[in-house]
Amino acid sequence: MKNRFAILDLGTNTFHILIAESGVPYPEIIFRETIAVKLGEGGISQGIINEAAAERGLNALKKFRQYIDQYQVKEIKAVATSALRTASNGSEFLRQVMLETDIAPQFIDGAREAGLIYLGVRRAVNFEKNKSLIIDIGGGSTEFIICDNNQILWKKSFEIGAARLMDKFHRSDPISEQDIEELTDYLDLVLSELKTELKIHNPDLLIGSAGAFETFAELSDPGCTNNEYTEFDFDLNKFDQISEWIMKSNHNERSREAAIIPVRVDMIVTATALTKYILQLHPFKSLRLSKYSLKEGLLFEGY
After folding, report:
1. Does residue 134 register a pLDDT over 90?
2. Distance CA 116, CA 130 (A)
3. pTM of this prediction?
4. For residues 75 and 172, what is the distance between their CA atoms, to the nearest angstrom?
5. Percent of the chain residues past pLDDT 70, beyond the cut
6. Domain covering 126-297 assigned CATH 3.30.420.40 in the classification
7. Among candidates 168, 117, 139, which has minimal Cα distance to 264?
8. For the residues 172-189, what does the mean pLDDT come to?
9. Which residues pair with 137 in a beta bridge?
């Protein structure tokens, strides 16, 4: 049997596992699953993982342990990102995980996270010869990477994930103009360094890494994320229409839309607001989805 290994990404909203086996020239993914855990729900603004969220996370990892055993995995790489690295009880949660599952996740900082996202996106997307801005909107943090196909030119992680922004600014349903204005003012303040770097590097292409951008793609072209392609080009006019609908919709309207998975029904609003803000910040010529993100970057690191 070929050597098999598991990659686990413990995010704020979702936990991911992919299992691959060694191959030439690259490992082959043979299994993947995502479980919605909402780890930041009810505690992200206080910097804690509450009891119910911790239980959901632990149950997801017990399920992952079953897959690891079933596929006779020899090596596990597990990383914990924003919600866990900023929570006062994040280390305690990881100790419990180790105790009950024999999985030992490692905290990674935002810079490492951004670097892995770049490696994943580079496998999925044709950069052509353009400079690009990659944006990865997580629940706890958002990573920005200015790059080309050969190198990272600038990268930074900001604690402005969709769950954090929702907790701070999504106070009415549909979201109010006042909430949007306050969110925009906050982004103006927090993202001043990004504005400077965009002027220096002048990227043509905005690449959205998985997550919310998969939802935008499904709303744009239902079924497009189920094919074998690892990228999707948006029609910017169509994206404007989709984002306008999301920003004016209420919870019930979004929950009836099959393209929006349950864990994103509410967080998609602040993710959309952030994406619209970035598109208005710089004259990008095109917008593209990368289906690959951090977990694929961890898989392909070193290849």
Report:
1. yes
2. 20
3. 0.95
4. 46
5. 100
6. no
7. 139
8. 97
9. 142
